Amino acid sequence: MTDADETATLAGLDIFLASPPPDHEQQEAFLDEAAALALDGQPITVYLQDEDAWAFEECEPVRALLDSAGEGALPITLLGLDIVVTAVYPSTEQMIRFAREGGAPRTPTSAAAAACGPGGTPTGGAPLPREAGGFAAQLMGGAPAPARPEGGPDIGGRWNLMGGDHGDGLPGVGSAER
Question: What is the C-alpha to C-alpha distance for residues 51 and 17, in angstroms, rounded to an integer?
Fold first, then answer.
């Protein structure tokens, strides 16, 4: 695979940054990493809050997040219209991985069919486990229950921390004491 073939399969990342940044050095280091990736053919677009205010208004996911969470959500990284990272600068490894995964061909799925279980997706979804594990296995008798910790009260010796009942049942008529 040539570099041109690999670049063609990468999805673009849109990264929205605060202006002025809370930490100038950290933002400069991030911008240097992003620029190096862009020079290597990684499709990255960076928007600065003061210079590219139009992008912050026109991008619905960013506008909605900023309206609900405030500017503390910046920086925001988008892959298509999906927000993939908020409140931190994405690492170089994350940017490469997001671009690769976003550019991979996908089989469209029906959200309604996928909600019905793994058989509803065109790819068959995740396989169901062949053996029950955890609490389900205990219910089916497939795995023994773990040993009870030593020193804990048994069900008959429970204590009501609010006072009153000490496991002897509900008080009868006329037995209320204060």
Answer: 10
Report which of 72, 74, 70, 82 is spatially closest to residue 46, judged by C-alpha positions: 74
- pLDDT, tens digit, for every residue of 39-58? 998 888 999 999 999 999 99
Q: Cβ of 128: how many Cβ atoms within 10 Å? A: 8
Q: In the structure encoding, which two tokens stand for residue 74, read together? A: 């910046």
pTM, full prediction: 0.56
Nearest-angstrom CA–CA distance, 165 and 157: 11
SS3 for the chain, per residue? CCHHHHHHCCCCEEEEECCCCCCHHHHHHHHHHHHHHHHCCCCEEEEECCCCHHHHHHCHHHHHHHHHHCHHHCCEEEECCEEEEECCCCCHHHHHHHHHHHHCCCCCCCHHHHHCCHHHCCCCCCCCCCCCCHHHHHHCCCCCCCCCCCCCCCHHHCCCCCCCCCCCCCCCCCCCCC
Strand partners, 17: 48
User: How far apart (Å, rounded) are the C-alpha atoms in residues 119 and 127?
Assistant: 9
pLDDT tens, position by position, 73-110: 999 999 888 889 999 999 999 999 988 887 666 565 55
Phi–psi pair at 83, nearest 5 degrees: -80, 120
